[in-house]
Amino acid sequence: MTDLPPHGQTWRDWLNTDTPTSRSHARAAAAWHGWLRLKSNHMAMLGLYILIGLVAVAAFAPWIAPHDPLAQNLMNRLQPPGSPGHLLGTDSLGRDILSRMIYGSRITLYIVSLVAMIAPIVGLLVGTIAGYAGGWTDAILMRITDIFLAFPRLVLALAFVAALGAGIENAVLAISITAWPPYARIARAETLTIRNSDFIAAIRLQGARPLRIITRHIWPLCISSLIIRVTLDMAGIILTAAGLGFLGLGAQPPSPEWGAMVAEGRRFILDSWWVATMPGLAIFTVSLAFNLLGDGMRDVLDPKEGGTR
Amino acid sequence: MSETLLDVENLRVTFPTRQGEFQAVRGVSFTLGRERLGIVGESGSGKSMTGRAILRLIRPPGRVEADRMEFRGEDLLAKSERDMQKIRGQKISMVMQDPKFSLNPVMKIGEQIMEIYRFHTGAGRSAARRKAVEMLEAVQIRDPERVMRAYPHEMSGGMGQRIMIAMMLVTEPEILIADEPTSALDVSVQTQVLSIIDRLVRERGMGLIFISHDLNLVASFCDRVLIMYAGRIVEVCDAGKLHEATHPYTRGLLGSLPRIDAPQPRLEVLKRDPAWAQAPSVSGRT
Amino acid sequence: MAIAENKTVGRRTPPPFLRGLITAAKTVGSVAITMLGLMFVTFLIGRVMPVDPVLAVVGERASKEIYQATYEAMGLDKPLLVQFAYYLWDVLHGDFGMSLLNARPVSEDIKRVFPATLELATLGTLIGVLLGVPLGVTAAVRRGTWIDQIARFVALIGYSMPIFWLGLIGLLIFYGILGWVGGPGRLGIFYEDLVPVRTGMILVDSAIDGNWSVFRNAFSHIILPASILGYYSMAYISRMTRSFMLEQLSAEYITTARVKGLPERTVIWRHAFGNIKVQLITVIALSYANLLEGAVLTETIFSWPGIGSYITTALLSADMAAVLGGTIVVGLIFVLINIFSDLLYKFFDPRAK
Predict the structure, then answer these.
(1) Looking at the domain assignment, is residue C104 inside a domain?
(2) Nearest neighbour of A288 by CB, restricted to C41, C160, C316
């Protein structure tokens, strides 16, 4: 059976069907319905637009930015917003704040996407192994998870960066180390329910090995709850990353990381407010966008949890 | 017929939904004297909504409308929320389905009974306490002092429902609405709870509205029966003459139960006619 | 029947006091393991540190013999687990080592700075609870109205705003422009050392001493950082309160309370709110623990001499003993707050007994 719509039927009809003709057809139709529900949520769409804008800005930074983000001009330092050639003003070294913010979006995206890759995967591995194996493996892995959960996240990240040395990669590592335990908890809970279901028993009777059961049958079912959680956590990851940057433990100067830019502007906050304010607004906007989108996605993918925040 | 306690004419309960308005109760009329009136219907027939509408406990955006809804000649729909609070619990009470959910889990049972009594009578703690213990004894609870200090989760279902009845009758209301009061209970305690309701309602000369899905139970327990379907009353019967019922839905309900005195090889499946939902409501006024 | 009876005989339940003892032992055991793990993690962090701890002690120009002697004296030639045992021994005796910066015991430093953080986080939580709980209850009761929208908006901002940035903006507006509050620090310089240190919390100390001018000055300094922490606490508490209340308001016993003819105020505050109190305690405890963490960034902004500032200052000067000591103390408090809220839960919820 083909996955393409037969003649005389539009794509829209094909997606709106109540009687899917194949597994991928059903999946496409479900995704389409989810998308329609998400689309009707204006706030979530606003978040999505902001994030698309962010990605675009990051991708086309060299063409959009009016100046070199690192070019100093001490003659022209601390110019207020609206000065000729500097829409958002300049910082203490005369660098164009707008251009630095545009380039900074690349660093933010880089950190967020790396953490969003590492932490859930580590959590998924630990959680499914613990849930599937049970017994001592489960007890030990979950105890380790609890120990990491017992630490306040930022403080643990601080300690790790202190040990590993400041820098973006280490910040990513530190945030990932502090971010995986909740994912492990979720993955374990999902695994426990799936493991005892009849269809897994049927697969096992057919002679499937644990590795195959975990990778082919358990992981795909854990993914949706993990995705919701990751989207909701993104804002927190951005804030933690910016916090590390602010403390001078993330990206190192002269790199235009937003948190570090706020820290730099802190010295002039009373006289030149814009130096710290502008990059802070950028952090706020992006993490707001992730929160809006995350709330919307949770309502679509997981209606029973709706409105708990 | 004795004096009329409740007079309802053309009662409608409406909920706005995305697909337009949904009428859960569509033009129900009946009166209630000092009698036991049964309302029977399947889930979604509007029987519980009717009970709650009388107390005006339909939460917005739901609406209650009626041409007439009077308690002893007082217009219930015209009352302010504050005046309505004086009716609820004091003049008209309600016992709900499952005591596991309808009693406040973190308040001591004594507190819950005393609360309603004190609110409506303004009595002091010790008077309220005496009254509550007396009431618990009236519903045949053996160790009322201990029960007063207990929390609802420490009680069995049957005890919970007796406590609920005690609480709702402590103010000596004139009407009790019992909304499926026994369907969450073990079969073994159902009769006991029913006989307690029966005795108290008789002794105090109250009006009872007994809402249930169990036609035979209602028939054996009530004086008159209203049969509801899709938000309307399809038939009104004297409980003793139920076998004379004419409406196919009522007959269907009667036929779909196994009878030990007339065994059938196969129970009838209820066939529904869309015309039933369209037909005008039968009046239960006397 | 016989089978059923056998079952009840076979499953002999221990007497209540023993059951309580077992629960307590389990709690203590799990806490001990968590704490052990916590210390092991910090120990490892200390070991992977690129800074050579021996060099830090003996200095760059020490001879090879001295270096070697110190290396052995510090136990660094022993296996990792033995080293951990030494470390554990020290930490359990309240010895976190010496600070590189001021050559004083880290434990003394922490004792000195901790009350400042406690004072800040406590006032912050107080603000968060006093505003967040009524806001959450009102939002739930008036679901979908403008006040619910405002509550949602307030929380959304709280979840999205970088706390260090909000602190800076607050400082700019309320101190720089309006001049309504005291600036960074805990006290103006003319008010320092005027009251004897009893608890280390200046508001409390000055109140005990009856020195109200110091109290006023301290208040003008603490109110802005505490409000900023309180805002985050409020965002979290109001959202949780709202969702707890929504769950309760649709419960059947609420209908019972209305059937009883109770006024709406009693229905909401005595019946519905009475049922979320216990859950709220956990949320408030969690929010309090989170504020200790939020204090790290806030203290930096406001030059607040608490444990957050202590850790970050130590961090920037690679003073590892101080960083790890601070981390352990904050982690310990985290764990303790969690246990405490669990205990409260068991104590207050009649169903948990």
Answers:
(1) no
(2) C160
